[in-house]
TrEMBL record:
The keyword Coiled coil does not apply. Pfam families: DUF1304. This is DUF1304 domain-containing protein. Signal peptide: none annotated. InterPro entries: DUF1304. Keywords: Membrane, Transmembrane, Transmembrane helix. The keyword Glycoprotein does not apply. The chain crosses the membrane at residues 7-26, 46-70, 82-100, 106-125. The lineage of its organism: Bacteria, Pseudomonadati, Bacteroidota, Sphingobacteriia, Sphingobacteriales.
């Protein structure tokens, strides 16, 4: 991605990717420690019972992160844009679904950064 908007787009994509790598780590490896501190509304006894489910969710977040990182490594500008838009779109849809089904804060924490990155990816190619 070229120009200042391209640099901003890449930084925002990297931030979204890092956020999803953190979610992967928490849900796959720290569910019963950090997960308890993060999801305080869940009863403590559920964390052991839902460890496998959380790990599965974490894996999906990892796939989103890897896709976003991949978009930063592509030399072909057109393909870089397509891959970034696809994975940012996936994050936005997941954030909307999470906001509707679980907590509105999911949209703020995950959706807004992804939307900002998407806007800058689109601005880079105008």
């Amino acid at each position: 991605m070229e120009g200042i908007t391209g640099i901003i787009a890449m930084v925002l994509i990297a931030i979204v990717a890092i956020e999803h790598l953190y979610i992967l780590w928490m849900e796959m490896f720290a569910w019963e420690t950090v997960g308890k501190k993060t999801f305080k509304s869940l009863p403590e006894e559920l964390f052991g019972a839902t460890k496998g489910l959380a790990a599965n969710q974490g894996l999906y977040n990892g796939f989103l992160a890897v896709g976003l990182i991949w978009s930063l490594c592509i030399d072909n500008i057109e393909w870089q844009r397509y891959i970034a838009l696809f994975f940012l779109g996936c994050v936005i849809i997941a954030a909307i679904f999470g906001a509707v089904t679980a907590s509105k804060s999911i949209f703020v924490k995950q959706g807004i950064p992804a939307i900002a990155a998407l806007i800058f990816v689109l601005l880079t190619y105008v």
